[in-house]
Design a protein that fits this description.
mainly beta, Immunoglobulin-like, 6-stranded mixed beta sheet, 5-stranded antiparallel beta sheet
Length: 443
């Protein structure tokens, strides 16, 4: 009987221990939104930081949920990014919901603190304001690039006017390692614009670069962190000005392949072939012009000539300096002023230093679907290179139940009730046996 009592107590203590392990401290995880309130269709930016302990398993988009005041799950398109071992970043557009207070929850968080395993859910409030006039959505909400020593980290910032008013947008920045293809512009309701963010990492010897992009509109703004981590950095020696090439100071014709034209991954391009359906949207393509001349090149010009030049355009059109053995990223776009006919067009992407063409890449463009395009439909751009890498994951989550954490809690409660019921039955039976024994003694 003593053994049974010890076993019963042990089972109860085990259940209590597990239940306490399930419940974590709210201060263990910090959830930070970049604004106090949002309108519907605006982009929520969210930092999730584990303050105490270490994650047992990584977070993903499935850990993030948006719930209404009654706890119901609301479907959202989620994007996630791991910043480091203790920090994650999420961003999503507010769905078409009424104004009010909603709950952002991070569920199924598994972590270890002071040797104890925890599985818990953390949450914060999301305030949605009324109004649909000045609404801007963006992608991405956070940029983190890991690149090699001679690689760039250029990307496209996608902005969409989801309100009923026209918007005047102005971009500002923190950090001198990148520039904007266009800094100020207007967006009509429903219009989307891609802005090239062009880096010049070759001008820096730093391994880690930290910047911000500020998007200003209608008295509001977004701030997009922009982090670049570079590997295999070699400190560049100061270049002797006498070895700087400017308009023929050195005869580049004596140098074999003074520049190379490659993809972002470093694969040398032999030609650029594009099939263009003018009814479709194409983001900007990126190619790399690498200085292979072993001396710095000054005032390097980029252009597309031939019939292809009426369809495609490049930015930037000039580099003040192209460092020896390093590269510059050039973006290739659809010419927004064009009104294209179906057909095949040829040309070349030329690189000039002074009056000399130091590099040339043949271009072939096949245009189709032009008969279906209405006049003025010019919001097109071309993806010249296909081996770019995505930094975020987008998943549209269907409505589901209360989540993994709630199921675990219910199972614990059910097991606890079973143990208590078992202890109660055992105690009741022993009590009845004891009372029977007393009655027999009285007789």
């Amino acid at each position: 009987m003593r053994f049974n009592l010890i076993a019963e107590k042990s089972a109860v203590f085990l259940i209590i221990f597990l239940l306490f392990s399930f419940f974590a401290y709210a201060e263990d995880l910090e959830i930070l939104t970049y604004r106090d309130s949002y309108n519907k269709f605006e982009t929520v930016q969210l930092e999730v930081t584990l303050v105490n302990g270490t994650f047992s398993s990584p977070l993903s988009v499935s850990n993030l949920n948006l719930r209404d005041s009654s706890g119901g799950l609301i479907s959202i398109a989620k994007n996630s990014l791991k910043i480091n071992e203790t920090k994650y970043f999420y961003y999503f557009d507010v769905p078409d919901v009424p104004e009010g207070r909603y709950k952002i929850s991070i569920s199924g968080v598994s972590y270890v603190r002071e040797g104890v395993n925890y599985l818990s859910e953390f949450s914060t409030n999301l305030s949605v304001a009324d109004g649909d006039a000045d609404i801007l959505s963006l992608r991405p909400g956070y940029v983190l690039s890991n690149v090699g020593a001679n690689e760039e980290a250029s990307f496209s910032l996608i902005l969409t006017n989801k309100g009923t008013n026209g918007l005047n947008v102005v971009l500002n920045k923190e950090g001198d390692f990148f520039n904007f293809q266009q800094q100020s512009f207007s967006l009509n309701p429903g219009q989307t614009k891609n802005i090239g963010i062009i880096t010049r990492l070759s001008a820096s010897d730093e391994a880690n670069l930290d910047g911000k992009i500020r998007v200003n509109y209608a008295g509001k703004f977004y701030e997009i962190p922009f982090l670049v981590f570079r590997s295999d950095i070699v400190t560049r020696e100061v270049v002797d000005l006498n070895e700087t090439v400017d308009e023929g100071a050195v005869d580049l014709s004596l140098i074999e392949n003074p520049v190379l034209i490659t993809t972002l991954s470093g694969r040398e391009l032999e030609n650029l072939t594009i099939s263009l359906d003018v009814n479709e949207y194409y983001p900007p393509g990126q190619i790399v012009v690498k200085n292979n001349a072993n001396v710095d090149l000054m005032n390097v010009e980029y252009s597309i000539i031939g019939d292809a030049g009426e369809i495609l355009d490049v930015k930037p059109m000039e580099s003040e300096i192209l460092i020896a053995n390093e590269g510059a990223v050039v973006l290739v776009f659809i010419n927004e002023a064009g009104d294209f006919d179906n057909g095949e067009f040829a040309g070349s992407f030329d690189i000039k230093v002074g009056d000399m063409i130091v590099g040339s890449l043949p271009i072939f463009v096949n245009v189709y679907g032009a008969a279906e395009v209405e006049a003025g439909d010019v919001n097109k751009s071309a993806d010249a290179v296909s081996d770019e890498k995505d930094s975020v994951t987008t998943v549209i989550e269907p409505e589901e139940g209360r989540g993994f954490g709630l199921w675990v809690f219910l199972i614990f409660v059910f097991v606890l009730l079973l143990v208590l019921f078992y202890v109660y039955k055992k105690t009741k039976r022993k009590k009845e046996e004891f009372e029977g024994y007393i009655e027999r003694i009285k007789r």
